[in-house]
Request: fold
Amino acid sequence: MVTYDSILKNIQKHLVLDQEEIDFFTSLIRWRRVPKKSLLLKEGQLCRHLNYVHSGALRAYCMDKKGKEGTIMFALADWWITDMYCFLNGKRAMMQIEVLEDSVIFQISKENWDRLLSDQPKFEKLFRILMQNAYTREQLRAIERLSLSAEERYESFLAKYPVIASTVTQKQIASYLGITPEFLSVIRRMAGGKRGRSRD
Amino acid sequence: MVTYDSILKNIQKHLVLDQEEIDFFTSLIRWRRVPKKSLLLKEGQLCRHLNYVHSGALRAYCMDKKGKEGTIMFALADWWITDMYCFLNGKRAMMQIEVLEDSVIFQISKENWDRLLSDQPKFEKLFRILMQNAYTREQLRAIERLSLSAEERYESFLAKYPVIASTVTQKQIASYLGITPEFLSVIRRMAGGKRGRSRD
Reply:
């Protein structure tokens, strides 16, 4: 059975809510099971929802003209994910969100999100913090891409996201780091060698 | 003379403020003139301020081990800029912010920013929107880097940031796009040819 416990705990890290506020918030969201290998969002589709991952694993990616995938982000339990620009501006998605493992998500539509913020301005703080976390994550990633070697970026990825690293494939990690799977394999062998053990 | 007009207009796009709130906000910020070619923030220095550009032009960049610069962002009049992760977490800056033109900025310290948000929660909305804009800017940039050619990224940069494009050097634009100045020069000649006029 899916309960609101995890999403409310996520929110109550940042906000103190009374029962009425909890009831109002939960009336605006709905939960969905999404099966492994399905697409939660397709490129070109209107992006209508912000998604909270209750359980499972998702990946957002986009493709170049040759069909080569670049990973934008991963989202495991307790993460929020959407094509934010398109969600906010009612545009067609520029990325796809695929389901890596059978997942349960909570969704809030743009209309309900607007209503939440206008009727309950205390939720501004929650989304300020979520947007801030997302922005700093992307800013750090840009800094790392500009200043670190691929090896160092891989080490940093493992340190920051150990659960993601153990959930997704090496090919998906490579596409997040912007390197080929072959090069990631070389890096992993070298890292294994340095540590005196194999990581393969 | 530097007045609060521009920063208050920036804020009042998103918030309705009464005189008391305006007075409280302006009591927490201070203005500074920063001369061209100076560094507003040095790598390794504690990042204590969030900066609003009243006039002028700034650029945030970081360097790889060989001293090669990668541009993180530009900020002209009416933009906000800082090393956000380090500002929020009281860390030493991972980037530098250089002054491209004699500029006037308003600064708010981390302590005063915390005080503003705790004493006047209505400012949460302002910073939710600023963080959201910054996040979507970075997410779009990541999508473009993964899905567009260098030529298309340059065209998109010109369309999105015409004033920045006419203010900063070609070398700085190249370092924002992640290409060499020589390659940008080729792209510009080709674009000029396509349009039947030279852009050089």
Q: What stands out?
A: The interface with chain B takes residues 61-65, 70, 72, 83-85, 88, 94-95, 117, 121-122, 124-125, 127-128, 131-132, 134-136, 138-143, 145-149 of chain A (CB under 8 Å). The two ends of chain A are 37 Å apart (CA to CA).
